[in-house]
Amino acid sequence: MSEPTPLLELQGIHKRFDSTVALDGVGFSVCRGEVHGLVGENGAGKSTLVKVSAGVHQPDEGRIFIGSKATRLASPREAEAAGIALIPQELDLFGELTVAENLFVGRRRPRTAWGGIDWKTMASAAAEVFERLGLCVPPRATVGQLSTANRQLVAIARALIGDARVLFMDEPTSALSDRETERLFRIIEDLRTQGVGVVYISHRLEEVFRLADRVTVLRDGSRVITDATRQLTADGVVRHMVGRELTEHYLRSDVEPGRERLRVEGLTKKGEFRDVSFALRAGEVVGVAGLIGAGRTEFAQTIFGLRKADAGRVLLDGDEVRISGPADAFAKGIAYVPEDRQLQGLVLPFIIRHNISLSSLGQVSHAGWITPRTERSMTEQLAERLHVRGARLTDPVNHLSGGNQQKTMLARCLARDPDILLLDEPTRGIDIGAKAEIYRQIDELAKAGKSLLVISSELEEVLGLADRVLVMREGRLVADLDRAEADRERVIGLATGTVASGDSDHEDPSANAEEGVPAEEQAEAPR
Prior knowledge:
Blueprint: E1 8-17, E2 20-30, E3 35-39, H1 46-53, E4 61-66, E5 69-71, H2 76-81, E6 84-87, H3 99-103, H4 119-133, H5 148-161, E7 166-170, H6 178-193, E8 197-201, H7 205-211, E9 214-219, E10 222-228, H8 234-242, E11 260-269, E12 273-281, E13 285-290, H9 296-303, E14 311-316, E15 319-321, H10 326-331, E16 334-337, H11 341-345, H12 352-357, E17 365-366, E18 369-370, H13 372-385, H14 402-414, E19 420-424, H15 432-447, E20 451-455, H16 459-465, E21 468-473, E22 476-482, H17 488-496, H18 519-523
Parallel strand pairs: 3-8, 3-9, 6-7, 7-8, 13-20, 13-21, 16-19, 19-20
Antiparallel strand pairs: 1-2, 1-4, 4-5, 9-10, 11-12, 11-14, 14-15, 17-18, 21-22
Helix pairs in contact: 4-5, 13-14
Protein name: Sugar ABC transporter ATP-binding protein
Main location: membrane
Keywords: ATP-binding, Cell membrane, Membrane, Nucleotide-binding, Repeat, Sugar transport, Translocase, Transport
């Protein structure tokens, strides 16, 4: 049986920008009804390959086939006419226009016999494609009023109304909730059954493995491998992406912890966590593991002053302190990187430089006015230290990739030279290369004598980085493990309650449950 003719095929594509080789003889194809995963680190060539496919860039060498016909895609309009559509990570919709108007942007609008715009036909076409996607949005609704998930579906609808046969989706779930992500997955499956070829570009390998029939890995502008997903493993894909094992990124220097910097005793916030006690020393990295809802974020935010504790105390260098808020925490040498950089951390309309200097305006100001030269010098040094790449410091921070946005957040914290850093999901939603850079910074900070508390839902990350591991369950700290005694099975068992914690430094809360009262009710913790 012969192989099916691809909807789109690229052969031997070369693309150079000045002295930089972006693509070096790359081949790629997508077939009818196929989901093809495209992965690689930042700078691997994914964006350039997509833009060549979508007519934004023209290759220096190589050939492009639509079906079995060789073609030249000289512009995005030509690519669109050939049935190729791109849904970028930053959606290119017009918020002030209606949904129906957005669907027809860049293409000829239907006209009435009198020469006016045929709004009825536009609304009918919109309703037809919305039914295909299961999207319940009035065609006359303004796009700016829609949720991120619905705006993304409008972008898909716009591609389909243009009869797209190949759909490139760039990091489509980066701003979606779990529920919205599941809805998008169902739509992708529907598109597959309708014969649309989908190219799924994501750093979230679990999504790629769930959806893709084949996976292509790019590294340094070259194609490393294309294979059926069933023949690959996540670890193998990571090795192809970075040229080494992911565990090699967890390089921790041999640092002897110094004096105690932070001690928390009996910290309690009703309904969120109860009786949390631990200590953190200079040069030490302490990881925090647990299920979502275990209270990890809440107790870190309480230490930083974002929440007010109902009981317990915090000691810095042996002295009890009361932290009234984030500004007070910064003043006392504590910094916090939140788990959601876009909602809780960055000011997206601000330029990168202002986002970095936001927590240290006093250091870059004189007589109440920011000194541009001082701010520029400080932010350039920090951006270089953390290898923030992809845009000028005068560009809006939302122009950066997720990894560079996260490094911008860390740069903001380091601008205050804190002694204690609370890092909440520091590598969530970023690519492998950016993760490696964050890991390197954590190690460098520990070597410099800083104290780090790292909360992560990636257990391998916690085990690879931490000198000690705290395990939380249902708002209680159930274990405080040394690196040598923290292994995957034990931590998972403690986090889920399938392993008793009697042999650790902290006792299992269920062991002291009052007669007839469940332990979770005593802890008053969220489930």
